[in-house]
Amino acid sequence: GRTARIARGAPPVKSVRGIGIMGSRRSATWSLLALLIVAFCAASASAQATGEPCQTRSIPVGVSIVETSVARENSVTYLGLLAFFGSTVDAGPRGSADPIPLVVASDRNACTPIAEVAGKAVLLWRGECAYIEKARNAQDAGAAGVIVVSDEEELSPMSCAGDASVTIPVMQVLEKDGAQMEQDIAAGGATVSISELKIKGTVDLTASTALLAMASLTIIFGAVWSLYDQMSHFQRDETESNPHGGRAAAAHGSGLEGLEITESSAAYFVVFASVVLLVIFFTMQHWVFIVIKGVFCFAAVQGLTALFFAAIESSFKSMSQDINLPVFGTVNAVSVPSVSLAVITVLVWLINQGADWAWVLQDVMGMSFLVNVLRLVHLPNLKVGSMLLMGAMCYDIFWVYIQPHLFGNESVMVKVAKGGEKHESLPMLFLFPRLGGSVGDFSMLGYGDVILPGLLIVHNHLFDNRKVESGRPRMRYLVPSIGAYIAGLLLTFMALYFEVGGQGGQPALCYLVPTVLGGTVAYAHSRGEFKEMWRGGDLLDETEEDEGERLIGSGSTNSTAANV
User: What would the pLDDT profile of 356-369 be if each residue is shown by its tens digit?
Assistant: First the structure.
């Protein structure tokens, strides 16, 4: 076989014809793998954040407001709802259950600067300007808390847009309760003691279903396309390869190029991801986020180009011919419209990131990027897949649950997710707006929670078809693997609903790894194929292995590889 042993300086394998404008497929694959590491750490962090930089939570939190009035012997308790921005009650200037003098804002709507209310809770009314503007004006006047009186019959979450910072608790009460508080203040004064109520989290069924569908379809598309690559190259080269060796043997000479994750790279993956996370945390400079966003755009162009190329070539087969272009040399004619459409799509997203519909383009770009990674990056066997997924799960557990308790309760993930003081954003998430929510209120799923289990699912599908030379592909592993992935996401949504761990976001890999990896092991064992899958397929020759290098296409994957 033509192994691309980069460390030894062997001649490189040929690149795939057709996308020449974007450079060789090897360089594209390396860039995608580099972004995979960034996407994993950044998306894991971003999944702990909310949709808008100014927001500090995405789950409604109820509050108990106990009012004591001079005009009344007994205290009265009102129910309130914390805004999606501002601090928690405990983190506020006066803490929880501490009596705070209550006053009415000099401007009832607080849409302009109000008189000083230092150390007091200020009562104001909804309307005429944004909630975040009211809270900022009250905060600038020294308020210890804000109580917004609603004009509706039910409480509704107060959201925000932009990057304004509010560090005091902001809550909403019903109109009748606000009117009673105003009367008590006028009758001689009142104080309030505020404490949070433990209310179960909410999961938007529509948004969660959409995220589940996007993630599952991305993995299925990547698996089917990867197998199609293998089948097409086998059919093209079967006359040159051993006719009795199956499709894996033909892949050795096909020139189909990709990257294979080895045991050493799987072991170091989590280390590299942690280093990237810490670099972002300690630098937190604008240029760092610009670079990450730029790499994301480049990878999205690569993925979109591949999708457009496949669609155009299948529809207009006569266009698929070589042409000469200045600077780029000989390329396939289909590359020109493919790259052009990809670049235009990414530019439209870049220019309109703040638009209400920008999440649609971000999801399309993300899906194309992830599908391209699943096509080009492969696992050689179940052993390496287990190392990678277990390491990723440990990464999530450490940075979400353990690290904040080790370093002064400051969460590295949360700070990176919120982009520091300037609230920079990282586009490493699938987004879908919550029904009934305000603008900028999204349910989200990190790319790392798709691509890492997806690598194992694609491996399972290729392993299942390792000896099938023609005919309809088998789905014996793909269907149960997708089922296990869906089960893992459903567990994640349940954990989000019950607020397992006490934080808003949930590390999905803690639920996906046991279901996908555990399901793969159990299913392979039941079929008597566990040992073969663990070692890497029917063509693996241990006498030819050297320093962890291995061939893509050796039974479980589909192409000649440049090892990572």
Answer: 889 999 999 999 99
Cβ pair 446, 429 in contact under 8 A:
yes
The backbone torsions φ and ψ at residue 4, rounded to the nearest 5 degrees and listed phi first, read -90, 85
- Angstrom distance (rounded) from CA 564 to CA 562: 7
Q: Over the Cα atoms of the chain, what is R_g?
A: 28
3-state secondary structure of 314: helix
Strand partners, 260: 378
The residue among 552, 36, 16, 35 whose CA lies nearest residue 310 is 16
* pLDDT tens for each residue of 437-493: 555 567 888 888 999 999 999 999 999 998 876 678 999 999 999 999 999 999 988
Query: What span, in angstroms and rounded, lies between the C-alpha atoms of 191 and 489?
Result: 45
- Indicate the SS3 state at residue 550: coil
Q: What are phi and psi of 124, to 5 degrees?
A: -145, 170
- Predicted structure pTM score: 0.69
391 contacts 529 by C-beta, under 8 angstroms: no
Buried b (16+ CB within 10 A) or exposed e, 517-553: bebbeebbeeeebbebbbbbbbbbeeeeeeeebbbbb
| Bridge-based pairing state of the strands 377-378 and 429-433 | unpaired
**Cα 189 to Cα 63, 68, 70, 339, 365, distances in angstroms:** 21, 9, 6, 68, 57
Rounded distance, CA 198 to CA 203, Å?
16
